[in-house]
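Example S7 (structure tokens).
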């Protein structure tokens, strides 16, 4: 009678690396510093914060990703062709609508980067459209579920937080990508059907 030996999954190690790299690339141009200690991860959100949540679902993984930052950080990352960040003060409803919309796009880009990188490990999933939040809606959405992970980048008013909550997660035997997995599109590439 043999006993099965359960192998330890390295999925959380891979996911942590993927999220750090993806977030640092996405926000690096805005001057957001590298990951900081988790003390800033629990910093209270206030009326100057915006966020967006994206759910994802696939054969081996299911969960939600939430991106939280200040109005100022979101404004600094907004491309000039969409309107200068200096013109957005946060004092009008129009400014908040534009920044909430842009924060949804940032969350979408982050989820897309995560999806592309996890694809090389044989992990595939679909991404739902983002839900943009601010104020009371953001505070309610941040009721941290058991088992979620929060990463913080930067500090103070320049802090970006990424919260990921997994309802189902894959088992990975190796932190190395699978050989022979077709490369996914690079960030910024356009795919036509």
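Recovered sequence:
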């Amino acid at each position: 009678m043999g006993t099965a030996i359960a192998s330890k999954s390295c999925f959380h190690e891979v996911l942590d690396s993927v999220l750090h790299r993806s977030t640092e690339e996405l926000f690096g141009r805005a001057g957001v510093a590298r990951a900081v200690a988790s003390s800033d991860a629990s910093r209270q959100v206030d009326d100057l914060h915006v966020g967006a949540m994206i759910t994802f679902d696939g054969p081996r993984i299911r969960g939600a990703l939430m991106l939280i930052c200040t109005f100022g950080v979101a404004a600094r990352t907004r491309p000039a062709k969409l309107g200068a960040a200096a013109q957005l003060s946060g004092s009008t409803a129009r400014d908040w609508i534009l920044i909430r919309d842009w924060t949804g796009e940032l969350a979408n880009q982050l989820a897309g980067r995560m999806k592309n990188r996890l694809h090389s490990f044989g992990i595939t999933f679909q991404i739902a459209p983002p839900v943009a939040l601010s104020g009371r809606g953001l505070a309610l959405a941040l009721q941290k579920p058991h088992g979620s992970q929060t990463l913080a980048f930067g500090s103070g008013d320049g802090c970006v937080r990424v919260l990921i909550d997994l309802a189902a997660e894959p088992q990975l035997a190796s932190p190395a990508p699978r050989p022979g997995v077709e490369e996914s599109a690079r960030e910024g590439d356009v795919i036509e059907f």
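Notes on this example. Strands lie at 49-57, 62-70, 126-127, 131-134, 149-153, 160-168.
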